[in-house]
Amino acid sequence: MLEKLTQIFKVRELRNKIFFILGILIVFRIAANVPLPGVNAEQLRRLFEGNQFLGMLNVFSGGGLSNISIVMLGVGPYITASIIMQLLTMIIPRIEQMYKEEGEAGRQKFNMWTRWFTIPLAAIQTFSMITLLRSQNVLQITSTFDIITIVIIATAGTILLMWLGELITEKGIGNGVSLIIFAGIVSAIPASFSRMLATFDSTQIFTYAALLAVALITIAGVVMVTEGQRNIPVSYAKRIRGDKTYGGVQSHLPLRVNQAGVIPIIFAMSIMLFPGMIASFLMKVSNQLVANAATFVNNLFQNQWFYGGMYFLLVVLFTYFYTAVVFDPVKISENLQKQGGYVPGIRPGKTTADFLYKIMNRITLTGSLFLGTIAVLPFIVQGMTGIQSLTIGGTSILIVVAVVIETIKQIESQLVMRDYEGF
Fold first, then answer.
1. Reported confidence tier of residue 386, pLDDT bands at 50, 70, 90
2. What is the separation, in whole angstroms, between the first and last Cα of the chain?
């Protein structure tokens, strides 16, 4: 391993890229620690301690939300805009044609629309978050001018991180948005560890050992599922043109166990946000009937069993939904048929499409149950151990492992291009 690291830093261009990315991440961490005015730090700490959902939202903001910083939304609005644009490719044929058939120019236009769509999303989400924080006495501002100023600052912060993420992606070593989220997660480890030491109870030494075992098993499971795939054998018919023979080769079609990544968790988190947020607003209205209904909904979403169950169910459903968006067995079957390929023992055309659909459904079941378990893992660990200061953040582990694997692969490809042996 040390030899490989030495080889990485011997290549000047690769070394400069790594230092550039580290510099960008340092800029991000500095911005994430510049707080907005009017924040009640003690009330903010209490709010995050009692709300698992805000902790999850803080993960996708890259750690900026826990400080109510100038980049408190992080790259969350950009991720949401990207997801919505991908969904629109299924609904609007013109967008699908632009993204899939117009080459690099079409993809650049698609990315430009995503960036523009991020701006209003960031403004709306900032205003919603300000309203929530004011209702909890975390943000102590009253004037309209202050609210507008904070909306503009936080929106600009999201645009800044979006630009920094694209600068990282251009270097060809990891995805910029993923690395920003990764940096936020990793930066929170020292604080979590110190909090654990501050509340350490020697009588629970076996519980801490069990937590460590769960963490290691979770990491191993994330690696297995992230890299897991089902290879469908594909054969190509021989074609003779003149004196040359083409085709006649054996290949395979890889179907990943987790096609959707962490997207279903983001979807589910977005859906789970609104009922509790709206209920917290309506609890203080003068209409007693509306206030009682809002109080009931708020208490329902505070129930860990209900919240965890709904969260798990939504993650499973969205995994199937997003897999259906990104995986089209009919088009794959058509492309195989056009290229002279076929699955041995399966007739080309509709029969192949039905076969791929059936296999993908079985694989997705495993992936969806895994993602659902990962999403509710903090609730499970806290319920079993009763330890609030240290939880196994399954989603955080999923993101960290996925980012590390992808970054290593891209560094490996950079080394292979320079005649080095990969990892």
1. low
2. 8
